[in-house]
Amino acid sequence: MYHNILIPIAFDAERDITAPLKLAEILGTPGGKVTLLHVMEHVPSYAISYMPTDYLIAARQAIQGELDDMAAKLPNATGVVIEGHSGRSILDWAETNKPDLIIIASHRPGMQDLLLGSTAAQVVRHARCAVHVVR
Questions:
Q1: Which residues contact 13 (CB under 8 A, 6 or more apart)?
Q2: Model confidence over 67-76: pLDDT tens digits?
Q3: Rounded to whole angstroms, how far apart are CA atoms 68 and 19?
Q4: I want to staple 28 with a disulfide (CB 3.0 to 4.6 A). Which of 32, 41, 100, 103 is the partner?
Q5: What is the pLDDT of residues 123-135, one digit of tens each?
Q6: pTM of this prediction?
Q7: H helices, E strands: number in the chain
Q8: Distance between CA atoms of residues 5 and 8, nearest Å
């Protein structure tokens, strides 16, 4: 049983968000903490000039709202939005906040993932705690 669980959340169409949440309920201790973490990728400076000025603020608020709705379905869960590169930012957050388990969803790898590596693969290789990959 785990006391501090981190679940990185990607809002991609092919990702199953419900499976990691169910697994956290099964593996977590009563009273344990669950953090739902979403990483907003940095928008290149050349692209920002083409976006409405409040786009990033509105996007962050919408994502936080989704995370809060998801967290409300789990005991002791909170949603957190950070900015950065997905794999590295998840690992940095985990290093600072010391979860004892990361539950991360992974899609079936394609050629791009084999050449570049996926976020889940990066977390599995470099996390300093247990990692459970859900397909």
A1: none
A2: 999 999 999 9
A3: 17
A4: 32
A5: 999 999 999 999 7
A6: 0.90
A7: 6, 5
A8: 10
